[in-house]
Design brief:
The chain is mostly helical. The protein has eight helices and no strands. α2 (19-35) packs across α4 and α5 (72-89) crosses α7.
């Protein structure tokens, strides 16, 4: 896949940014998005994050690309899917798939299903079923008939 001119310009711009600055921006990303779980807010944007960590969106984009290898939307969706996976894998979680999608920050069902399948290769219902089967297998292994 060839890069667009805009992507090439963005990479060139990123190389000119001081590494300490990008490290500071990454700390803000971790604090607000990862640890602060702002990804749960479906309206949280790159612009809002840049404002929260007192930087601009170009520095933010450069730091996300450098530290996470993706763009803002991809990072947020990966975090949302990871949270949804935890809930779906938890045998004590009685939330519906729809409720899990909302709780993890997706604005609608379609975006949740699309992102979930893109990052896991399976639909949420299938993932939950597979995790339940895995738990049953593990429970059986714990029994000892010696």
């Amino acid at each position: 896949m060839t890069e667009t001119t805009a992507q090439q310009e963005e990479k060139a711009y990123s190389r000119r940014i001081n590494r300490d600055t990008l490290s500071d921006v990454n700390k803000g990303i971790r604090n607000f998005i990862v640890l602060g779980k702002r990804y749960r807010d479906p309206t949280y944007s790159a612009r809002k994050l840049a404002d929260d960590i007192h930087t601009n969106t170009r520095y933010l984009s450069a730091a996300i690309r450098m530290y996470y290898g993706c763009n803002f939307s991809e990072l947020v969706n990966k975090l949302r899917v990871d949270e949804a996976k935890e809930m779906l894998a938890n045998p004590l979680c009685t939330m519906t798939i729809e409720d899990i999608s909302i709780s993890s920050g997706f604005a609608n069902r379609q975006s949740f299903y699309s992102a979930f399948e893109r990052y896991t290769g399976v639909k949420p219902k299938e993932y939950r079923k597979n995790m339940a089967l895995k738990d049953n297998d593990n429970a059986f292994e714990l029994l000892s008939f010696d």
